[in-house]
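Quick illustration, no need to memorize.
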Amino acid sequence: MKKLLVLALLASSATVASAQARWSEQKANDWYAQLPWLVGADYIPSNAINELEMFQAATFDPAINDHELGLAESIGMNTARVFLQDQLWKQDPEGFKKRLDAFLAIAAKHHIRPILVLFDSCWENNPHLGPQHPPIPGIHNSGWVQSPGKERLFDRSVEPELKAYVTGIVSAFANDPRILAWDIWNEPDNRGGDKEEDEPAKVKRVNELLPQTFAWARSAHPSQPLTSGVWKGNWSDPAKESETTKIQLAESDVISFHSYAWPEEFEARIKELLTLHRPLICTEYMARGAGSTFDTSLPIAKQYHVAAINWGLVAGKTQTYFPWDSWDRPYVRQQPTVWFHEVFRQDGTPYRQREVDFIRQLTGRGTH
C-alpha cells in the first residue's frame, strides 16, 4: 500500500510539473493551426485614457466597448490586445472579474478573442486608482500607466500581491475559450517614465520577476498560451540578445514581437523569429509616420501567416494619433500631417477609407 501511495504521489507530481511546463513546439503549432489568420488592434476605448479608466467601476462603459469592437468586427478583425492593471485586482478582485467577464462577452459577440496583458513597463510609473487626469493637450499617450509601477515593482513585500493578482486573474479565466492568450509583460525592459539613470535597476528587477510571473501564470494551468513580446535589440543571435529577450523567448509558448519599422525591416524581424519554429504574433505595429503602415506591413504578415495586431482602433483620450515626438513638441497649434496610430474617428468613420477597404480585402470581410 505504501509503495502504491508513493507511486501515486510521484505520478501526481509529474502531472503538475507537466501542466506547468512551457508548451512544446508541437503543441504551440497545433494550437495555431486551428485558428484563422489573426488580425486585430491594441484596444483601449476612446473614452478611457488608460487601462485603469477602462476597467474601474466608475468608468467602465460596456456600450462604447460594444460600439467600437463592432467597428473592429466590421473590417474583419478577430482579436484584440487589452491591458489589465494589478491595482484593479488589489482593490476589488470580484468586481474586476465581473467587469472583465462583461468585456469578454462583448468581444465574443463580435467574434473577437482578446490577448490580455498582465504587466506593462511603459509610460507613467506612479499609477493610482480613482479619477485619472485629463489628456495633456497635443501629446501621445499622456495618461498611460505602468503595472505594477515603480514603487510596487521595487518593494519586495508587494510580491505576494503581484502573485495573487496573476494567479487570481489567470485562474478565473484559465479555461475560458473567449481569451486567445495571456501576454505576461509588455516591453518589460522599457524605461517608460523612469529616469535614464534608474533604468539598469529597473531592468534588473524586472528580469528577476519576469520568469516568476510566467511561473505564477502557469501554476493556474491556463488552457491559453503565454507570451511576452520582444521589441528591441538583436533577435538573430542568442549571443547578442539582452537578458530580458532571452527570458521572453525561453518562456513564451508562442512568440510575440513589436515592430514599427519600415516593411523591409518588419520582414527581416519575422525571418529572425521564424527560426524558433513557433507561432508568431506581432502584438504592436502600424505607425504611419515611422514607415509602418497597413498597406505595406499587413500583406507581409499574411504572407508569413503572422498574426498582426496594430496599435490603436478609435481615436480618443489616449491621443495616440499624435506621434511619439509630441512629447518633445506637443501638437497644440496644428495637427500632425498624418495620424500616427488609430483606424477610426470617434464618430465611427475611417481615418482613411482606402485603408479599411484594404484591411477588409485581406481579412476576407469584403468592402461592406
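Strands lie at 39-42, 79-83, 113-120, 181-186, 226-227, 255-258, 280-284, 307-311.
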